[in-house]
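Practice set, problem 2.
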Amino acid sequence: MIVNALTPTRSRRGDFHGYAVLGVQYQQPSGVQGWHCTAWNSKGPLHDYWVSKGKLYNASFHYLHPETESNNETGGHNSVDVRGVARDCPPQVAEAIQDALYDWEHEA
């Protein structure tokens, strides 16, 4: 499933359970929100997921800058190709991402 026309609304970074977690929240034109989250530590690879409604998904991310020649008329275009629930996500990575999102979504 491809989700188009994503607008970034905020970004956050923090350390959770031994992982650095970077998240950018996006909103769809319908109002539905999701996060592009990347988590890593010094011992392993980057883990990159789309998170929506509390679930982690495997996905490919496509970002086009609004000032590139091919995007002048549309103002840029962000999309995510969601490929299904991330069943292969290590539990400690999922916990770090979920705790990060909980904190970020409940900021005062």
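Problem 2, part (b): a different protein.
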Amino acid sequence: MPLIMNSAVVLLCLISFCIMAPAIVSFVFVFLWRTGVHSQLDVSKKCHLDIDVVWSTSSCDSSSPWGVWLGLGVLRLILTAGLLVRTFSPSSP
């Protein structure tokens, strides 16, 4: 029985990591790509907003400001963390 409980805890931790890691990486990329060396990595030249900065690949002259990308990154982190807390917290009676 303890082995099954430990396996469940490990599985829950692994699931949490796999859900939270992309949100954290996307948030970090917003800072790393604020002024990218390559034009496709420069956040200030991204044409379209997307779920995260990694998926937005097109570049143009007029784009969304860096603050919008930062706000979306923070929102994604908060929503993802909130989802994990709500999912794995013990339910109230």
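Answer key, part (b): The chain has a mean pLDDT of 77. The chain has two helices and no strands.
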